[in-house]
């Protein structure tokens, strides 16, 4: 079975996320990076192609050139991976789908909910696979948590607390990664809520198996002069009546990438932390606490199939990311990959961002979340 | 210098908090338990007196008898400690103050804000010391955190996140400790918000040096049939504009007494967790993380004066509690103890509970917090 | 039931361990400090008595005076607690036993094994209780560990690893606590091995239920000019053939009081750490990991009877110490307290120190450990 | 710059380490797996080739065939990676070197010290690069630790404690991974000491910058019937006089891959743990504790150049492994890679194993370690 061929859009010099996608895509040898438009600047695109060690002829200056050239090759790309800043997502995806290419995209899916709906239309019209790299749902123990909730191990979910603290934007937003994220023209109206809040949001629904139906949002721009939110509190209500809280911040000095989620039901509780991702803590109503180890004897098939090393040999962010690409590869091969975040997740995420921003601006209290 | 003599009100058979107060009060040999009305049932009061090994003659059946008898003794009590359920707090404090006795009381100070204002009147009229046992502000590293914030180590406080998860009321409320806490007649209108939310609230103001000026409260009664809240989310705004979040819950299965607080400023961040109380984590904007150890070389006088063992020899809840009593003893001896929570803290705590309960019931959004 | 009356020997100004014994002894109100010879200097003894708030008349200048005066009182002391440096232990205990007073003593029991044997003779001749404050065996979860090993939860014990790292003597030994510990005339021939190695040794036997039968010792004096060992490695063999390792050091910079022990059998494993004493980790051969919480629902009677606060309210060093005193009080009242370290433990500990020092000096390889 | 082409020896169906080497080698796109003799069984070799998605024609039945066929290709392999059980290491390396191919090999380098010396002769004669995959020295924070020790941050190293507990061989040795490891014919005379003890040994020298000059070994075969050691204690002396302890075990039930190392000097101490590899703890003599984060602002060039994600995005075992391959690729390209373990490390490791096994068998006490 040959490796699938990937064309990358974005990921040029200075973008940390390009190499991350490349490593993740290739980790299981199901996919190979062969081409790309790594920058809208032709020279920078070429330079990036070189750094990725791909055929120089396949580091293209623009999308049209890439699509045409690759179509003409027998070994042309099978899909594109969009890793550029948010405002490029929709145009890139639209063009790729129009060229008959499946799309996997970094999140958030677009800059606005309207764009997301447009995107969903293109995906439906093209009838092609679409994947969204919500990395954290690729962690084996996140999938274990989901499976255990579905199996009723914590009973009826009553409460979900998800926190996503970061501190790297506590000062001035300096550097390529920071600048576009605090610029509404490139990131969309949401800052922190779109950049990391949407990850946290996705995780609550992914693990709990419930949908968020109502939210109360309080977003703030703490750093003087900042034009987008950098500190977010969102209260949640889920479809089954469960209560929830989502905290996301990029001004909490010293926090690195502290995503963590806790779910509580009437029979148990569960805790997972991204920075120590290889354990899952399980509590039961009778007072027992169990530690579940990645790749250990106590984990089920969803998690077991997504680890590559024995227990005690830590896997991390790149491996979780690779699991998303493995799911996407499976879909491209016509297999089932029900845990791959797709266009529905994209729509829900963008609805969440839009609703939160608007409700917060209006101090609107509780508002419904609808897609 | 003789030991101060304490009369206890409440703390009878089955009340875990009575022995806790007794141990805490006596730990530094500044105070001695000598008398008490441990129960409104005379026989149970006597039995408790025996378990405390006090003079049987001084285990009284009611307050009036105690006050009269103790006044008549040369070695009569110097003050009372009120450790009974909330609805007894005001009557007991009123009677003690009327009898000329200083009062130290468990929290919350009363059942309602109106009662708290009445209490404040009695305290003012009596001109006697009043202390409130917000235990967690007795931890050495909480005091270290406060001192460091005051010294500007994290710069201007921008964000405070306090969480107080417990799980022990996730099922039916069974047993002496649980039953009165979920009965509004005895606990007051607040359940979780009064029992533990008020601790979390006090901690935010104690460490940050800021006052909460506005809140948005979302309290829920998750366990079917429960008449008071058991799960609380409260958004906070502080006097300097800082944002805050307070989470408290008693239905988070597996959580024990997980109080933790994080403060972030424009120069640094700080994290403290009650269940591992002997370390304080300090982050600086330039990316350094330092661990401050209780009784270690890096701590200042407020914390250093409140430890009893060398670094690495863990102190805990009882020692923190003892620090509150040490402060109270200092006040009784006419010394300064500016960190002792007193009647102002009592008023603010009860205003917080009342405001949160009312605002949540009315889905009122942001409301001012005034005393 | 009246409180037992304690006379302290040692614990004068500057000795941190005196107040620790006082707090521990009094915590459960079974014992009361009423008298003492706190220093061989009469003035310092008086000053210490004042700081303990005891009757000034009962802060004595020497042992003979104390024993005579207390005997003459109706409310005279019931026992003595010896908390002075090691070289005072034997003379103080001998005198107390001769005066008909039970003894509880800090460890190590004496300075040499010969002295320990002499002490054992006095204890036997007097027919009086003798207790040794191996504090760490007073921790509830240490007792839980012992009970679980005895119940076969980890199967046949095969391996014990105990580590006791400290760093406070990594530089020059400065101050009252440090100076006598590095002076063989006062501490005995063992430095680190006697000060903390003996705690680690006691813990291995206490929890495993096995006796050490052979050792191989490698003691070093790392700090230039030091006259006693400050860094120790000792290999162990237990009576059932189990292997063991004991590491103790006082020159490991940054280590505070890092005592920890791990036991492995053919069915499971167990880990306990003094600096986070309120959890015990349990592993089973089939790959499960369970966290046992102090005062939680999963603990047995030995541990449950030795906690004073609900789960999540940390207890620490002082409470563990108090458990030793509670055992001793029980013995004085004629009750059973099988977990109290006594004269047999004293003998084994001193034999361990003597054997380790001699074997290390002689580079003797494996040698039997006999009492 | 083209990718280097790797031929794998070993790594057939059921061998977890084959895919690990493949992922590690390819992670940075400097190397590509293109060929292999994955099993001595031709059919199994083909099947493995398919699972790796390489050209079926390049999954060879034996070494000679591979070397001949690859030599004949313009795009033939540039080097081999040996990932088979130990007894294949020498013959495979010898043949590869004879065929003019550089070698990177899993550890231990050979089964015996005599073999290692023979290997060293072949490497010297061939004048070709040789690398040894001591994975753990590829972790960024291990390199940070090494750099900090070299820079004098902990002063003169006085003490090194390395522990490598595992539990997976506590029961019967079942399965492909376990069986050969407990068979002296395939693993060599050392069991645990060779499988993991040698990693621990290498780490002590790598970080401390000192060589071990003397050892005292106590190896045991704890599981009944086991023919090689499964539990090891080795005392160490370093070239500068520093003391050391090495603990390795495969029968410590519940331990996964708990490698951890602590180094102490006269100015500071340092702690690193493989299972939480993205932090390094640094202690200073004046009582400060600092946490160093991988990819954080406080790390130096050796570590910074070996991370792929921002701080807080955990990297793990595969990334550390990839760092070894990146070093090896650098060497193949003629660049400097001074941290790559090579033939000298191989010789020292095999000398360590041989000396430890022999000294333990003879109960020889302290013996010199010479290469």
From TrEMBL, chains A, B, C, D:
Domain Gfo/Idh/MocA-like oxidoreductase N-terminal: 5-130
Family matches, as Pfam families: GFO_IDH_MocA, GFO_IDH_MocA_C3
SUPFAM superfamilies (UniProt xref): Glyceraldehyde-3-phosphate dehydrogenase-like, C-terminal domain (SSF55347), NAD(P)-binding Rossmann-fold domains (SSF51735)
GFO/IDH/MocA-like oxidoreductase domain span: 142-270
InterPro entries per UniProt: Gfo/Idh/MocA-like_OxRdtase_N, Gfo/Idh/MocA_oxidoreduct, GFO_IDH_MocA-like_dom, NAD(P)-bd_dom_sf
Name of the protein described by the UniProt record: Gfo/Idh/MocA family oxidoreductase
């Amino acid at each position: 079975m040959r490796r699938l061929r990937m064309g990358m859009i974005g990921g040029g010099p200075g973008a940390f996320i390009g190499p991350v996608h490349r490593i993740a895509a290739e980790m299981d040898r199901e996919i190979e990076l062969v081409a790309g438009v790594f920058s809208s600047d032709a020279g920078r695109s070429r330079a990036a192609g070189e750094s990725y060690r791909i055929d120089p002829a396949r580091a293209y200056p623009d999308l049209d050139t890439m699509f045409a050239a690759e179509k003409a090759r027998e070994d042309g790309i099978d899909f594109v991976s969009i890793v550029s800043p948010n405002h490029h997502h929709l145009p890139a995806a639209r063009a790729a789908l129009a060229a008959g290419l499946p799309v996997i995209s970094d999140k958030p899916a677009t800059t606005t909910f309207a764009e997301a709906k447009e995107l969903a239309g293109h995906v439906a019209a093209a009838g092609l696979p679409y994947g969204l790299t919500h990395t954290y749902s690729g962690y084996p123990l996140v999938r274990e948590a989901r499976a255990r909730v579905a199996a009723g191990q914590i009973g009826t979910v009553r409460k979900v607390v998800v926190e996503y603290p970061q501190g790297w934007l506590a000062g001035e937003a300096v550097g390529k990664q920071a600048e576009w994220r605090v610029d509404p023209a490139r990131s969309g109206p949401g800052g922190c809520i779109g950049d990391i809040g949407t990850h946290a949001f996705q995780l609550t629904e992914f693990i709990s198996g419930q949908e968020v139906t109502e939210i109360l949002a309080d977003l703030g721009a703490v750093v003087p002069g900042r034009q987008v939110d950098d500190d977010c509190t969102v209260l949640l209500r889920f479809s089954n009546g469960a209560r929830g809280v989502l905290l996301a911040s990029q001004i909490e000095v010293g926090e690195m990438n502290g995503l963590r989620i806790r779910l509580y039901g009437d029979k148990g509780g569960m805790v997972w932390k991204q920075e120590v991702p290889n354990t899952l803590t399980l509590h039961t109503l009778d007072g027992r606490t169990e530690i579940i180890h990645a790749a250990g004897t106590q984990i089920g098939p969803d998690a077991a199939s997504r680890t590559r090393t024995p227990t005690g040999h830590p896997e991390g962010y790149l491996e979780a990311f690779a699991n998303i690409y493995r799911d996407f590869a499976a879909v491209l091969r016509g297999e089932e990959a029900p845990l791959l975040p797709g266009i529905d997740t994209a729509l829900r995420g963008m609805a969440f961002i839009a609703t939160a921003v608007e409700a917060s601006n209006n101090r609107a209290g509780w508002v419904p979340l609808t897609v």
